Model the fold of this input.
Amino acid sequence: MFSYATKEYYELPVCSVFRSPKGASLGLAFLDVCRARISETGVGAIADVAFLNRKSFVSILRQLSICSLMLMGTVAYGDGVPEDCTQLILGIAPTWNSMRGELRLFERSRNGDWTLVAGPFPVLFGKNGVAWGTGLAGQNERGLRKQERDGRAPAGVFEIGQIFGYDQSLPLGADYPYHQVTESDVWSDDPRSPNYNRHVVIDPKNPPDNYTHEKMRSGDFAYRWLIEIRHNSDPPVPGAGSAIFFHIRRGVNRPTTGCTTMAEPNLVKLVTWLRARRHPCYALLPTVEYEKKWGSWHLPSPETLRRGSSSSLTH
Done:
């Protein structure tokens, strides 16, 4: 765990690395180990453990001390839905192994209560269900973890990234960062690639030979609109899952390898509803975890879910 951090993050500012969701818990754990080792053996003994020379290690320790209060704030921020998120997409799966579930859209004022604005409507998850992912929350939970090609959708709380699509512009009424894809646009799903779980622009006439990529404009109607779910993004961990999106379902009984899919009218409604300034997030949980975590993760209450919605959505 610590060897990964010291080797991979050696050249990066410590505060910026450890302010990522994964890095925050890593930083606090690293601090605890360092403090314990210092009290037992002194600074010199742990410098050798960290794969760093003494000068670099002491520099990192100094930065970690400065960042410790920032890390506390980061962990609190990452514990559920952030305060600045005022648009929430909530997915509920009946069990960990469910390929079907429901989606609801919520809004709130900052620090206000959640109001249901659309849903529930049916969605499909991974063909094998869901597993804990890595985002704003969920990465520190015990249990089954999302892995590349495991056929499970990532559970937890995630930021919403960019929207990609075939059309020149977003549907009427939409206002969100958008990228029109061409044959040059791919998403790296190869854990060996330095661009793993990233949007990459290539030369389609001379594609890279060493890595596999998922074409973002393949002619598949299901990819007409892609909404990025930022699982395993900050930074990507090889093999922990890639290319997670909301997109159009291929059929009512056609689950995915990890995305969340729905009828096209419902996806278009989601696209037109999103606003970047409201910092939208996606929370996906099986029912048992939702019932345990809705309060501490700042999710809508079960009572709010039962109130229903007047929105007309496709089933």
Notes: The first strand starts at residue 87 and ends at 93. DSSP finds eight helices and 13 strands in the chain. The longest helix spans residues 54-78.
